[in-house]
Specification:
It is a single chain. The chain has helices spanning 3-26, 31-62. With 63 residues, it is mainly α.
Length: 63
C-alpha cells in the first residue's frame, strides 16, 4: 500500500496550488490558470504511479 504514502503529499500540494492561485489573483492574474498549472503535474505523476504500480508489482513478482 505504498500509494497511501503519496496521498498526504498530494494533499499538501493541492493546498500549495490553492495558495499560489490566491497569490496570482492578488497580482491580477488568472487564478484558476495558476491553480491548475500548480496542481496538475503532481496529479499526472500520481496517476502514472497508480496506473503502473500493479504492472510493476507483477513484474517484480515474476523475477
Amino acid at each position: 500500500m505504498s500509494e497511501l504514502a503519496l496521498l498526504p503529499l498530494l494533499l499538501c500540494n493541492l493546498v500549495v496550488a490553492y495558495r499560489l492561485g490566491k497569490a496570482a489573483q492578488a497580482l491580477g492574474r488568472n487564478r484558476w490558470l495558476y491553480t491548475l498549472a500548480a496542481g496538475l503535474p503532481p496529479a499526472a505523476i500520481a496517476v502514472c504511479i497508480f496506473l503502473y504500480s500493479a504492472a510493476w508489482a507483477r513484474a517484480m513478482d515474476q523475477r
